[in-house]
Automatic annotation (TrEMBL):
SUPFAM superfamilies: TPR-like (SSF48452). Keywords: Cytoplasm, Repeat, TPR repeat. This is CHAT domain-containing protein. Its main location: cytoplasm. It comes from Trebonia kvetii. InterPro entries: Bac_ResReg_Asp_Phosphatase, TPR-like_helical_dom_sf, TPR_rpt.
Length: 841
């Protein structure tokens, strides 16, 4: 490549001449062959713009910048960059404000983009994240409009880091990936290394360590080949942290030492502090407490002197770990508390949770159970604040997965220290808070309509034969193929859209649970019925956490080991549901799931509310063995997805006995004749004239106290499920988002309350959404319901009792009568066990 020995002034002159000729000019076309990519930022962006083949033709008068203005802009950009490296945000801000002021109307906005990115960087280094985000957003909009792809790369990389601090690691990984792709297109290796470093850090948080190591190793190779010390610092430090977490301590120490050396050469304060902090971690792992303290003290002193508050926070946390390792829990607690204070000032909630974990361990070592439990719960609340700030379900779930140990440590502490308020707080947040949000708000009409449309199209496409057997035989082959391919494309593309439409509407309403509500919530529930809360401990599928309470029974909680056989059974039921031909022996292992202590003192006719989380929601709860009986025959049973939802249902209004009943039976149902109310003088029966009328009655349920629907329920990946009232007349969860459902609703169909493989959070099902939209009790199923005369007899027996009994009472009475016949007791579970009352008792 020519021009390797040109001076910086010559390069600047050449670039200015090329610039005034415009990106399509003759000088610009040959620029890449005449000079290498400039190292200084002030010229680097202009070089990339002029040599970017994706830049379209633009009016030449946009590029008529005087030489004096050009020089001034380049000098200010470089001065600001140097100040940012030295963490002198005040000097950087002054230079960037001056740079922005040099822009003349009508000229290409490249200097403004550079100024906005720099101002964003300065604000980010000073932990003013909202201000930084606003600058980056402005920079990206201008860069996109002006085809300045290098400016877009420069903004995307720090936006990725902002997302790591306050958003989703998955979203950050995608942002860094976009920046890396653009940088590769531009052959911009410095920012490619920066994007790969950020992507590696995001992938570490997502537990994708192999992919993270590849990204970070490539970033380090690129930075070393370029002699880019700042890039070496960042990549080597992240790679060293990854090696440390994987137990490769010698490699970690070598990588972090390289980072520290490069930080010294480049003069970057933040790089030096971060490298010292990471080396302190390695020394701790090697039991070198003196070395660890030395590195942490150096990091703290440099941070305090340089005004790097985040570095102070992490150094205090490291020093706290050293004190804890030296068996100085009081000193450790105070240091962790200092780290917490700093992180809260910065608004860094994940780091706050980490500091709270340290405080909890130190409090435990001092036998201060109250402080330990309080810190554990506060850590959960910090993560929940992050979850509730995300408006996409997948990102809310990411926080639950990433910080599973925060939740499990808190629930263990609540059990160990016999603190029911703490247990309820953690439990209700684990339950998921989308349904709680739906209780308070109706989604925007446009969003609900979009979700309904996506669900309807997906359900319709899914119900059509995959082989095109329904298509007209006389259809031309090309047309037949086109229809079939279109159908398959719908099935392949619609699930994601439909799933997100429903889940994200609810996610936007997510609200965290307040500890102040915990004890009153439990007291109200336990005054009305016996309550059993159960969840698998996050990150430990072999343990179950439980809490029980009831009228005259104080709250008790515990942890229970679960055998491998029970784990497999629970996973199978959550994944596939109850097999239609399963008999009681196939779920007998569930007898070992629940603790005997939870049932001590309970009368056989006790009203029992079970709140099962996650995979446990899918269980056929009436068929769980308890002693010589099944739960469904021993107790008057209801199931709820959260204590909050059950409390809302019980307290919203008194449920009267049904006097007006509407019912519909799909013609595709063979055996479920709805005869329970035939000639029944206790009720006014309205047999709907069509499926459309029935659908309208369910979604605007003001005319009927009870509506009964018998139809085929079908699970659909990406949508949860739907209920088919007739061909093309479908009841979907999305259709209920802004509905008004009847007081009591019976969904005599498969999968009305659950769908296979969907138990990652509070279940957004027909049954549970109906509770948020006015229903006080819903009879629905957790798996497939048999369509045969015996199942029909069981269902009609339950329905016949509803005018005189509550739904849980009617279900229990019929269950006892049904199971009194040994043929039924030992027969197919699908005839009775999938039916549950969702709501309260």
């Amino acid at each position: 490549m020519g021009g390797q020995n040109r001076s910086a002034a010559d390069v600047s002159r050449l670039l200015h001449a090329s610039w005034t000729g415009g990106p399509a000019g003759e000088l610009a076309k040959s620029l890449a062959d005449r000079i290498p990519v400039p190292g200084a930022l002030g010229l680097r962006g202009r070089f990339h713009f002029l040599t970017d083949p994706a830049v379209p033709a633009m009016p030449g008068d946009q590029f008529l910048v005087s030489w004096d203005t050009w020089q001034r802009q380049v000098e200010l950009t470089n001065a600001a960059d140097a100040a940012l490296i030295a963490n002198d945000t005040a000097a950087a801000g002054s230079a960037l404000t001056a740079l922005r002021a040099t822009q003349e109307d009508g000229l290409h906005p490249l200097p403004v983009v550079d100024a906005l990115v720099g101002l964003g960087d300065a604000a980010r280094q000073a932990d003013r994240f909202e201000e930084a985000a606003a600058h980056y957003e402005g920079a990206m909009e201008l860069a996109q409009a002006a085809s300045y792809r290098f400016g877009l790369v420069r903004a995307l990389v720090p936006v990725g880091y902002l997302t790591l601090l306050s958003g989703s690691a998955g979203q950050a990984a995608d942002t860094f990936g976009r920046a890396a792709d653009l940088a590769r297109d531009l052959d911009e290796r410095v920012y490619l290394a920066a994007a790969l470093t950020g992507r590696g850090e995001a992938l570490v948080r997502l537990r994708e360590d192999d992919a993270a190591e590849r990204a970070l190793a490539e970033a380090l190779r690129l930075s070393e080949s370029l002699g880019a010390d700042v890039g070496i610092v960042n990549a080597a430090q992240q790679l060293g942290d990854l090696y440390r977490s994987r137990g490769r301590l010698d490699e970690a120490k070598a990588a972090l030492t390289r980072a520290l050396d490069a930080a010294g050469r480049s003069g970057t304060l933040i790089g030096t502090v971060n490298a010292c902090d990471a080396l302190g971690e390695v020394c701790l792992r090697l039991a070198d407490l003196d070395g660890a303290r030395s590195y942490y003290l150096r990091a703290y002193e440099m941070s305090a002197e340089g005004g790097y508050r985040r570095g102070e926070a992490w150094a205090l946390y490291g020093l706290g770990r050293c004190a804890y390792a030296l068996d100085l829990p009081q000193e450790a607690y105070q240091l962790f508390e200092g780290a917490l204070e700093a992180n809260r000032e910065l608004g860094d909630l994940p780091s706050s949770a980490t500091a709270l974990d340290g405080m909890a361990r130190a409090a435990g070592a001092m036998a201060d159970t109250a402080a330990e439990t309080r810190a554990r719960v506060d850590a959960v609340l910090a993560i929940e604040a992050m979850r509730s700030s995300q408006d996409l379900h997948q990102y809310q779930q990411e926080y639950l997965r990433r910080f599973a140990m925060v939740y499990s440590a808190a629930i263990r502490a609540a059990v160990r220290n016999a603190d029911p308020g703490a247990f309820i707080t953690v439990f209700e947040n684990l339950a998921g808070r989308r349904l709680a949000g739906l209780l308070e708000k109706i989604p925007p009409a446009a969003a609900a309509a979009d979700a309904q449309l996506a669900s309807q199209v997906l359900a319709t496409a899914s119900s059509l034969p995959a082989d095109g057997a329904d298509l007209a035989a006389n259809m031309a082959s090309a047309q037949w193929r086109a229809r079939l391919v279109g159908r398959l494309a719908l099935r392949g593309g619609m699930p994601e859209r439909a799933e997100r439409a429903i889940a994200d509407i609810a996610a936007a309403l997510y609200r965290s649970f307040s500890p102040d509500d915990a004890v009153p919530l439990l007291d109200r529930a336990a005054a009305n019925a016996d309550v059993l809360l159960v969840t698998l401990v996050p990150g430990a599928g072999d343990q179950l956490a439980w809490l029980s309470a009831g009228p005259g029974r104080p709250a008790r909680s515990g942890l229970r080991e679960i055998s491998a056989a029970v784990q497999r059974l629970v996973s199978s039921l959550a994944r596939d549901g109850l097999h239609p031909l399963a008999r009681p022996g196939e779920v007998s292992a569930l007898a070992d799931l629940l603790p005997a202590q939870a049932f001590e003192g309970l009368a056989d006719d006790a009203r029992l509310l079970i709140v099962p989380l996650g995979d446990l929601w899918a269980l056929p709860w009436p068929a769980v063995p308890v002693g010589e009986a099944f739960l469904g025959e021993r107790f008057t049973l209801a199931v709820a997805p959260s204590l909050t939802l059950a409390d809302h249902v019980r307290g919203s209004r008194e449920m009267s006995r049904p006097r007006t009943v509407g019912q519909w039976r799909s013609t595709q149902i063979k055996h479920h004749d709805l005869v329970a109310f035939a000639d029944d003088k206790r009720v006014a029966l309205d047999a709907f004239s069509s499926a459309d009328v029935a659908l309208t009655a369910v979604t605007s349920g003001r005319r009927h106290d009870l509506i009964v629907i018998a139809g085929h329920g079908r699970p659909v990946p990406g949508m949860v499920h739907y209920l088919e009232l007739a061909p093309r007349v479908l009841l979907t969860p999305a259709a209920l988002l802004d509905a008004r459902t009847p007081d009591q609703l019976v969904l005599a169909a498969c999968w009305g309350a659950n769908a296979p493989g969907s138990a990652d959070s509070d279940p957004l099902t027909l049954a549970t959404i109906a509770l948020t939209r006015g229903s006080l009790a819903v009879l629905a199923t957790t798996s497939e319901l048999a369509d045969d005369p015996i199942a029909s007899r069981f269902l009609n027996g339950v329905l016949h009792r509803l005018p005189a009994s509550t739904m849980p009472e009617a279900l229990r009475a019929m269950t006892r009568r049904f199971l009194a016949d040994p043929r039924h007791r030992n027969g197919y579970l699908s005839r009775w066990a999938p039916l549950i009352t969702v709501g309260a008792v």
